[in-house]
Amino acid sequence: MTIIDPTDAVPAPRPGDAEKTGPLLEVRDLHVEFKTREGVVRAVNGVNYSVNSGETLAVLGESGSGKSVTAQAIMGILDMPPASIPKGEIRFYGQDMLKMSAEERRKLRGARIAMIFQDALSSLNPVLSVGFQLGEMFRVHQGLSRKEAKAKAIELMDRVKIPAAAARVNDYPHQFSGGMRQRIMIAMALALEPDLIIADEPTTALDVTVQAQVMDLLAELQREYRMGLILITHDLGVVADVADKIAVMYAGRIVETAPVHELYKRPAHPYTRGLLDSIPRLDQKGRELYAIKGLPPNLLKVPSGCAFNPRCEKAQDICRTERPLLVPVTERDGTELPGRASACHFWKETIHG
Amino acid sequence: MAELTKADEPTDATPNVSEVDVADVHSEEEAVAALDAHVDRGEPILQVRNLVKHFPLTQGIVIKRQIGAVKAVDGISFDLYQGETLGIVGESGCGKSTVAKLLMNLEQATAGEIFYKGQDITKLSGKALKAVRRNIQMIFQDPYTSLNPRMTVGDIIGEPFDIHPEVAPKGDRRRKVQELLDVVGLNPEYINRYPHQFSGGQRQRIGIARGLALNPEVIICDEPVSALDVSVQAQVINLMEGLQDEFNLSYIFIAHDLSIVRHISDRVGVMYLGKMAEIGTDEQIYDHPTHPYTQALLSAVPVPDPDARDHRERIILTGDVPSPANPPSGCRFRTRCWKAQDKCAQEVPLLAVPERFKSSDSPAAHESACHFAEEKDVVHAG
Ligand SMILES: Nc1ncnc2c1ncn2[C@@H]1O[C@H](COP(=O)(O)OP(=O)(O)OP(=O)(O)O)[C@@H](O)[C@H]1O
Ligand SMILES: Nc1ncnc2c1ncn2[C@@H]1O[C@H](COP(=O)(O)OP(=O)(O)O)[C@@H](O)[C@H]1O
Ligand code: SF4
Ligand code: SF4
Ligand SMILES: [Mg+2]
Ligand SMILES: [Mg+2]
């Protein structure tokens, strides 16, 4: 098992990046809405998170919580309209990408920021060979010849441990298994050695034994290339295995951030606590599982105040009227807890009991 | 042992399951009566013996030639006891859903028997088959596609009464459906709503209500919570456990989430490529697995506790699951097994309590289909 050690995560200096400091990527107060016939879907309502080089940020949330929409906004691949970004910043090495020209953003995509999608089969072109699609990255971005690009493609396939890469470079996507296709997606994302990879549920469609292979590979390559990684998932287990820090999303907002060990030990938000409590545990066998009551909210009418209030056991009057901000979480005596924040009026009671 | 070719693999891969007490019936009336018989808690209610399902692989459009077969289920035997939950786990394509469909009589078995209360249901027809169908019900994985979007919830839940009017006479149906809605925790006033007006978790409750309509004794659940959000899964699991106690149900619970399976199951069977690799109590399988595949599967599951990950040994398997149309000779797991030897390519390992553990009362003494079954310490989820 590859373990990512945050202590050796110093960003490797890249040519031309010397003057840039601070986090690799920082999302600030991002809002995304969709105009639909039923009304305005507020999919992202003020997301804040950041990731450094060599670091893995896991974004955890149930379906519909806005994880993918946030990722698409970062990649600049939202269809606008129906989507619009009324507010927010997405800073890459300090520069707000939302203020860049379409051309500038296109240059970043693939070369500096790459994305891996859940469903590899539908993101690969079925009528082009895998080698051609991998090579295309080099032909388009680096102007390599067909022959050179093919050699690079084979090298990459080797890198992601596809057996007999040279023999399979001309095969088509459907000729590979699900696990191998996901490796090819990883190879494609890695091709130009980007600074940041966003992986949206990269293993959700795979079997557990293959999922373990793929996550292992991703972690190994990330460490080797010292990339920043945003790993989007709904699986608490996957998060615990590979992430350095976690951002928990609910109804389009980050409700808690924390280093991975601390989140599991001492959650500071009732929603996080509820999720952790509803994992079946050995000592609970034969007993009722803890279950968060109610349902995730309808984004056409997000509850006022704290979006979690109709389902929260700790909710008070203030929760129905005042929206809790994401604030730093501290020890009882006020000592700072680095990287920790919670958007709950009663975070003190939640973390300190 | 003589060299075995794939053609003369023993189909009887499970020699030591208990004898089936075959019901002695001569007429249809006797058969129906036998199917209504009471089974004591802990006695076998369903007994599966050497069950096989091969799907023909054909070539050609006008004149179809069979060029092979997908061996989706290839010789499986197990018992389901009254009142218990038997979990079945395994990776995609290993044959779990096919087993479920065979038990439901939705697919015709290629070979083998399924005894329900001592009668082979693969050979029943007419009234007796209808009686079996009433007693064995199914809950499906996908709450989005398994409900007809044009039918009201009342019609969906009441539909089984059309085929089995004896359970609820016409005038009584509405009340019966409302009762069922109440049982699964939905508002009885929702009876005239349509499926799209409900969330995933609520739709799964509708599916469960429908499964309960005919007062079945056995419910086969194929991935009943996999499509649901984490926070809603626990609600549905709790509901299913409550209903089991209330109505004295026996469950076969198919899922890929190993910690949920452990939570709900009394016994667990692990499938690989159409065969049962290992079966035992939840403790035997999770804490004392002896089959290398089970060990790898358990160790591959991400542990939702970051402290545990630093202390565990993980087995990362290489390669993919082979095609069920062309499974490896001998042990099907041998192409990915780190312990494989020559014997594994030649002899099919039978599902049995390994010889070396036979006289011991250790939890390792349970059925495992491996020539070299032994315990291995792996930290794992659940
Ligand atoms: N009608 C069919 N015709 C041909 N092959 C089939 C058919 N139904 C299933 N199979 C094949 O049989 C094998 C077992 O399928 P099955 O659906 O039972 O798997 P499963 O264990 O339920 O998988 P999953 O976890 O993905 O649901 C697979 O290889 C599948 O492709
Ligand atoms: N093109 C679109 N038009 C309208 N609504 C959308 C669109 N894309 C996403 N949404 C909505 O935005 C919300 C967040 O979606 P998403 O980010 O995909 O969630 P997840 O956290 O599961 O990745 C959902 O309610 C979804 O239905
Ligand atoms: S703000 Fe109130 S409703 Fe929201 S999570 Fe905290 S206690 Fe619960
Ligand atoms: S029989 Fe051989 S190949 Fe099969 S699981 Fe056992 S050791 Fe591995
Ligand atoms: Mg998504
Ligand atoms: Mg299935």
Automatic annotation (TrEMBL), chain A:
SUPFAM superfamilies: P-loop containing nucleoside triphosphate hydrolases
Keyword ATP-binding: yes
Listed Pfam families: ABC_tran, oligo_HPY
Region Disordered, residue ranges: 1-21
GO MF entries: ATP binding; ATP hydrolysis activity
SMART domains the record matches: AAA (SM00382)
Keyword line: ATP-binding, Cell membrane, Membrane, Nucleotide-binding, Transport
Membrane topology: Peripheral membrane protein
One annotated Gene Ontology cellular component of this protein: plasma membrane
Domain ABC transporter: 27-276
Gene3D superfamilies: P-loop containing nucleotide triphosphate hydrolases (3.40.50.300)
UniProt cross-references to InterPro entries, sorted A to Z: AAA+_ATPase (IPR003593), ABC_Ni/Peptide_Import (IPR050388), ABC_transporter-like_ATP-bd (IPR003439), ABC_transporter-like_CS (IPR017871), Oligopep_ABC_C (IPR013563), P-loop_NTPase (IPR027417)
Domain of life: Bacteria
Predominant localisation class: membrane
Family recorded in the similarity comment: Belongs to the ABC transporter superfamily.
UniProt-recorded name of the protein: ABC transporter ATP-binding protein
UniProtKB/TrEMBL annotation, chain B:
Entry keyword set: ATP-binding, Nucleotide-binding, Transport
A Pfam match: oligo_HPY
One Gene Ontology term from the biological process aspect of the record: peptide transport
Keyword Oxidoreductase attached: no
SUPFAM superfamilies tied to this protein: P-loop containing nucleoside triphosphate hydrolases
Annotated GO MF terms: ATP binding; ATP hydrolysis activity
InterPro entries per record: AAA+_ATPase, ABC_transp_ATP-bind, ABC_transporter-like_ATP-bd, ABC_transporter-like_CS, Oligopep_ABC_C, P-loop_NTPase
Record has ATP-binding as a keyword: yes
Residue stretches making up the ABC transporter domain: 46-298
PANTHER family: D,D-DIPEPTIDE TRANSPORT ATP-BINDING PROTEIN DDPF-RELATED, TRANSPORT ATP-BINDING PROTEIN
Protein family: Belongs to the ABC transporter superfamily.
Name the record gives this protein: ABC transporter ATP-binding protein
Lineage of the species this protein comes from: Bacteria, Bacillati, Actinomycetota, Actinomycetes, Kitasatosporales
